[in-house]
Design a protein that fits this description.
It holds the Pfam family ThiS. By secondary structure, the protein is of the alpha+beta class. The chain has 3 helices and 5 strands. Strands 2-1-5-3-4 form a 5-stranded mixed beta sheet.
Length: 86
């Protein structure tokens, strides 16, 4: 485990996108799973920790249930917070 890192671009929606912009790039250790996305993003934006932790992760346009999917730098990763409306 030589500390290899990869850059991962995460698309953000709703309030997260409004606060941080439509995409952010995070540095994550390799191998990396979808479950590691939220903690990495919380380090960059600690004020949004609750919103980040309540968001759902989608990889390649499919919601992730258990977070154990290994990510590649080419994967499309999105964080989608809960939204309400009428």
């Amino acid at each position: 485990m030589g500390g290899l890192k990869m850059k991962l671009t995460v698309k953000l929606f709703a309030m997260l996108g409004e606060q941080l912009g439509p995409t952010v790039t995070i540095d994550v250790a390799q191998p990396n799973t979808a479950a590691m996305v939220k903690p990495a993003l919380c380090q960059q934006a600690p004020a949004l920790k609750t919103l980040i932790n309540n968001a759902r992760i989608a990889v390649n346009q499919e919601f992730i249930v258990d977070g154990q999917q290994v990510l590649q730098s080419t994967d499309e990763v999105a964080l989608i917070p809960p939204v309400s409306g009428g």
